[in-house]
Fold:
Amino acid sequence: MKVLIADDGLTIRRLLETYLTNWGYEVVSVSDGNKAWEVLKNPDAPRLVILDWLMPGMDGVDVCRKVRALEHGKLFYIIIFTSLEGKKDLVTALEAGADDFIIKSFDKDELQARIKVGERVARLKSELDSRVKALEEAIAHVKLLQGVLPICMHCHKIRDDKEVWKRLDKYISEHTDVMLSHSLCPECYEKHYPEFYENSPDKNE
Structure:
């Protein structure tokens, strides 16, 4: 899985890159909030994100808010990475849309465990999004005839929900996925084409 690291501190950024690479992740690294935003606004951006709170340009919390407003913003797992330790800071980060909050004086094993949690959640979000889209596409292709349809007793036209009378074959084509082909029933064959009907196989059926 790809991970985006956004931190203006070269030392901590290199440390995170080393850890994550050793843990099997593909790392994308930037040094400020504006660059992080440029990456994350793309639909194919890394789904697991570590944002430093205090960065040049946009700070991590501002980036988080903007990302959550994107159409694909719900698919990210966002970790705010900061030296701020107050409860108020934690609340601010979570209200901005962060999924986790890690203090920079972190324990390596705890960091790895939290990253694994983020990976699992990000994968689940992507799988769910794919299934929802597949379901929406399937529903869009399913057309059902429901309710009571007024049909003319003489010409057999259908009155639709816009009070427009349409030929039965046209109405069925518009409201189902059935493909219609024209043919003749034996009764109509005899009525309209008697000269051909006398010698047709339909007469003996």
